[in-house]
Design brief:
It is built from 5 helices and 15 strands. By secondary structure, it is of the alpha+beta class. The chain has one domain: Creatine Amidinohydrolase. The strands form 5 sheets. Strands 1, 2, 4 and 5 form a 4-stranded antiparallel sheet that branches. A 3-stranded antiparallel sheet has the order 3-12-11, with no helix packed on it. A 3-stranded antiparallel sheet has the order 6-10-13, with helices on one face. Strand 7 and strand 8 form a beta hairpin. Helix 1 packs across helix 2 and helix 3 packs antiparallel against helix 4. The longest helix has 21 residues. The relative contact order is 0.19.
Length: 265
Amino acid sequence: MAITIKTEDDIRKMRVAGRLAAEVLEMIKPHVVPGVSTGELDRLCHEHITVKQDAISACLGYHGFPKSVCISVNDVVCHGIPDNDKILKNGDIVNIDVTVIKDGFHGDTSAMFIAGTPSIQAERLCKVTQESLYLALRMVRPGIRLRTLGAAIQKFVESHDYSVVRDYCGHGIGEGFHEEPQVLHYDGDDGGVVLKKGMAFTIEPMVNTGDYRIRTMKDGWTVKTKDHGLSAQYEHTLVVTDDGCEIMTLRNDEEGALSRILIVQ
């Protein structure tokens, strides 16, 4: 397993790409309202990335993906294709997944948004999913096994009677969109990977209200929960530091959030 250790120059460039990706999510937040189409949200993101940021959307054209961001609504787990005919309704939960390329390096992040007023279940699912990400982020430091992150996420999520999707995982990132290692969000084989300073990867748990199994739609991209339950996901790009990690894609509305998360051992 060839895991690239990032140089200081790499990290500097990833810091820029990560901030731009976070900025896209900050920009789009007020636009996620009932009545807007996911196609319009994609258009706004694309314009912001390409015009204002003078950057590149890594998703557009990636293995044929037709849009600039992935937008996944309600029971869509991931890779939802934005569409002008897909209109958000009151209470919809929406994941927007953004990957920006700037100066050859990637910044990858996603967050949940709620159109209008959420159900209690939907709001709780989003909160637990975000907390599971924060839990793992606070554990990152040199010398720990990679699999301990996934084990902690799984334990936390299942303690709330939800399930963690097994078919998709986090990944190394840098000049490549998807690099080694694979970052599982459950307790599975990590190939013996031990975290080292300079390793950069994403953590991006996908959490379902019901069963963790999924199904892929005929378009070859859209992934939904098999039992039609709701799904949520949050994602950050990070680099391992001397005694923890630097979150490259931290949003302004998350300031102080990591220190407030209760770690469940």
